[in-house]
Design a protein that fits this description.
- The complex is a heterodimer.
- Chain A contains no helices and 11 strands.
- By secondary structure, chain A is mainly β.
- In chain A, strands 2, 4, 5, 9, 10 and 11 form a 6-stranded mixed sheet that branches. In chain A, strands 1-3-8-7-6 form a 5-stranded antiparallel sheet, with no helix packed on it.
- Chain A is globular and about 45 Å long.
- In chain A, about 35% of the residues are buried.
- Chain B is about 0% helix and about 50% strand.
- Chain B has no helices and 11 strands.
- In chain B, strands 2, 4, 5, 6, 9, 10 and 11 form a 7-stranded mixed sheet that branches.
- The radius of gyration of chain B is 14 Å and the shape is globular.
- Chain B starts with a strand and ends with a strand.
- Classes of the chains: A mainly beta, B mainly beta.
- The interface between A and B is medium-sized, with 25 and 25 residues.
Chain lengths: ~110, ~120
């Protein structure tokens, strides 16, 4: 089956840069997505990588290496509002639905 | 982006009763919607894929008779938790993909429904 591994917690200070890693094991691969979820809220889409390399969207960037079954989310110029849970996700074996990693809780302090 | 609306946002019910949660795509048609369940501080667990006009596809370990899914129109899917028990208390979230826009791996989520069974 599909599985994704990511660290459970990460802490950082305002203005810093943090990288959240995700390794995956899949039968078939259709890309890696990243989502942000604040406490009690709905997940919101951050990025999607189908091919190797870095995708940049403002302060957030996402990287994928298919040969290493590895990706990461890079958050720059951290702000307090970035404190949230971050999930990597990929498609299930049938390629029909997203399954999520266990999530990384990011705590940003001043 | 596309908008998915979920109702109710919170519901409290007695053990043994049934609860229906609605998920609507407000500005696009969704032939497929996804239902997830999330316990506190845990991941989103895929429960089922809801297909318009046909039976839902349930993930392994999810009781189809307990979690009834109906997707009668291109904009509405419902999840009914039947004979709810305290262990069914959880955060239920629906999502859909807008095929007109966005990335393949981009889902739009409803606000979620927090179910508490007493």
């Amino acid at each position: 089956g599909q599985s994704l591994e990511q660290p459970s917690e990460v802490t950082a200070v305002e203005g810093a840069i943090v990288q959240i890693n995700c390794t995956y094991q899949t039968s078939g691969f259709y890309g890696l997505s990243w989502y942000q979820q604040h406490d009690g809220g709905a997940p919101t889409f951050l990025s999607y990588n189908a091919l190797d390399g870095l995708e940049e969207t403002g302060r957030f960037s996402s990287f994928l290496s298919r040969s290493d079954s590895y990706g990461y989310l890079l958050l720059q110029e951290l702000q307090m509002k970035d404190s949230a849970s971050y999930f990597c996700a990929t498609f299930n074996q049938a390629g029909t639905a997203l399954i999520f990693g266990k999530g990384t809780t990011l705590s940003v302090s001043s | 982006g596309a908008v998915v609306s979920q109702h109710p946002s919170r519901v409290i019910c007695k053990s043994g009763t049934s609860v229906k949660i609605e998920c609507r795509s407000l500005d696009f048609q969704a032939t497929t919607m996804f239902w997830y369940r999330q316990f506190p501080k845990q991941s989103l667990m895929l429960m089922a894929t809801s297909n318009e006009g046909s039976k839902a596809t349930y993930e392994q370990g999810v009781e189809k008779d307990k979690f009834l899914i109906n997707h009668a129109s291109l904009t509405l899917s419902t999840l009914t938790v039947t004979s709810a028990h305290p262990e069914d208390s959880s955060f239920y979230i629906c999502s859909a993909r807008d095929r007109r826009q966005g990335e393949i791996g981009e889902l739009f989520f409803g606000e979620g429904s927090r179910l508490t069974v007493l």
